[in-house]
Amino acid sequence: MRTSCSLGVDIGSISTKGAILDQSGHLLASAYLLTEGNPLDAVNRLLDHLYTKIPGDTQIRAVGTTGSARRLIGAMLEADTVKNEITAHAVGTLSRHPETRTILEIGGQDSKIILLGNGIVTDYAMNTLCAAGTGAFLSAQAGRLGLRIDEMGALALRSKSPARVAARCTVFAESDLIHKAQAGHNKADLVAGLCHAVASNYLSNVGKGKKITPPVVFQGGVSQNQGVVEAFRRGLGCDILVDPNGPLMGAIGAALLAAKTPPRTVPFAFDLAKKSYETKAATCPACSNHCEIVRFYRDGNMLDYWGNRCDQGI
Q1: Partners of 124 in the beta sheet?
Q2: pTM for this structure?
Q3: Three-class SS of residue 1?
Q4: Where is pLDDT greater, at 282 or 88?
Q5: pLDDT exceeding 90 applies to what percent of the chain?
Q6: What's the burial of 238, exposed, middle or buried (CB within 10 Å: 0-12/13-18/19+)?
């Protein structure tokens, strides 16, 4: 008997995540890899990973995309649903933790907070303008300290006296970090200081004016850093839940949303990503808006376009 499933893809600037769910919402296969500046290639590699993890009788009957490149990848995969990150993360998280009231999310280059009530989104905020306090920021500081990013969390927990690091701006943070190191602070205290600064920066900016109510779920790549998790626990004075599949919640949510659409009569083809794709950008001269329109082609045929603010530009 063939297994009917749904596929969710969360495509971000730093990482690309994929999840395949069965009809009961159980995770059958997943993959997490770096986007490396090429979302089309990243999704191609992602599908290769997923294909090797599923039984041969699996059929994908629904596809959903989310993330910063959701429109592009949605056109590429002929997605049934293309949803924003807020909706996808909320749906994915509530499917695993239905009592959740607050979602804290810190990714590679942005962060967001989602407030929930009675199973729906009641408020949210995003920070996409500054990389301070994101995964990219922590990765850069780890490199400066001669550490791997996955070493930071455990090292931070060993600190007895975290250094006070200003992390409101990446430039100031790096300068402050150098100054603290030259003043004699050890690596554990420096890393713990960075973790506390990330949590403090998030709460005073992304979480500013928001009523953060438990249960609180922390997700995104930075949620794998135990030092930042502990910093949030101290800052909020409540327990912080980190799901083992936290980095996949956007993809899980996209798959669940896709599963609600009418099933495809023809199953999704995993080799779809291997076709020839091309994007072309141009400024539309049709009116004074001068919109920057992106056209997306497969094998020379235009699949989709976006960027126009009126019906004149195609």
Answers
A1: 114
A2: 0.86
A3: coil
A4: 88
A5: 51
A6: middle
